[in-house]
Amino acid sequence: MGLLRKEGDAVSGRKYALVCGAGGFIGSHLVTRLKAEGFHVRGVDLKYPEFSETRADEFVIGDLRDPAFCRRIVDRPFHEVYQLAADMGGAGFIFTGEHDSEVMHNSAMINLNMVDICCQVGVERMFYSSSACIYPEYNQLDPDNPNCAEESAYPAAPDSEYGWEKLFSERMYMAYSRNNDLCVRIARFHNIFGPEGAWNSGREKAPAALCRKVAETPDGGEIEIWGDGKQTRSFLYIDECLDGIRRLMDSDFVGPVNIGSDEMITINGLAGMVMSIAGKSLTIRHVEGPLGVRGRNSDNRLIEERLGWRPTAPLRQGMEKTYHWTEQQVLNSSA
């Protein structure tokens, strides 16, 4: 089963949490947050976190596509289960079309297994991480005025198979909530970023990719950006994402609800911000590549109304931390 136990993992009276995808970027940070809040945490993934040692009390290496494995790791009615495990990546992975079948199969199998087994065992509360990729492409053609309000998800028309799978799984979790009294919370993440995320694996997202390109390029050099760089996005720093998750889990609101920033920026603008942080003057060469939708921005009206929460840190603050971390990875890799 690949179980790694740490000392002091059986503490009477402590709340127990299971984090699926605990070896990934958001999952590994979430484990640390839950530990700080006093949870006993079991993490599970195909791999350990890449950039730091896990803080989980127990870490189980295994495949959540296997229902027998899922039954072994959900061996008690956990107080909270966080289902973040998915086959995912940035535009260079999701939008090429080369990985569509594996993305849909792998993520759907994980969700089908986990929601059913958690329901059978009597898990108290379950979190599902959906994505802004579920929103219709037709509402995101204008880079200056994208519509990502929660109610705009239908009529459905995501621009990727990744988005279609996320939308299907949302509906499945809500069906289990209605028919089986499973307490579910669903969030749609909008481009979460920060240190200890993928930065050179081919699955990195725009903030990490741009940080890597700028860090690798000498002052006065040139970097490439896919498309014309006028496509817009918003990006949420990992610490604020965790705040939103915990606020949602402690609430009586099911969702789905956006967890993201509404500080929209063009990709050219983001590149300029990274150059400024690095103290470099670089030129940009625009090239063909997978882009996703033309514009996307988190609509935070619902989460502010229902949970009284909205992100507060400016994008640059998170990008400074992310750049300096990425720069160190670049230096370490070339040493």
Q: Would you identify the regions where 5 or more consecutive residues have pLDDT less than 50?
A: 1-11
End-to-end separation: 36 Å
The fraction of residues in strands falls at: 15-25%
Tally of contiguous helical segments: 10
Helix content: 25-40%
Characterization of this structure:
The chain has 335 residues and is α/β, with parallel strands linked by helices. The chain folds into two domains: 208 residues, NAD(P)-binding Rossmann-like Domain (Rossmann fold); 93 residues, Alpha-Beta Complex (UDP-galactose 4-epimerase, domain 1). It is 38% helix and 16% strand. The strands form four sheets. The protein has an eight-stranded mixed sheet with strand order 1-4-3-2-5-6-7-12, sandwiched between helices. A two-stranded parallel ribbon has the order 8-11. A two-stranded parallel sheet has the order 9-14. Strand 2, helix 1 and strand 3 form a beta-alpha-beta unit. The longest helix has 22 residues. The radius of gyration is 20 Å and the shape is globular.
List the keywords.
single chain; 335 residues; alpha/beta; Rossmann fold; UDP-galactose 4-epimerase, domain 1; 2 domains; eight-stranded mixed sheet; two-stranded parallel sheet; 38% helix; 16% strand; disordered N terminus
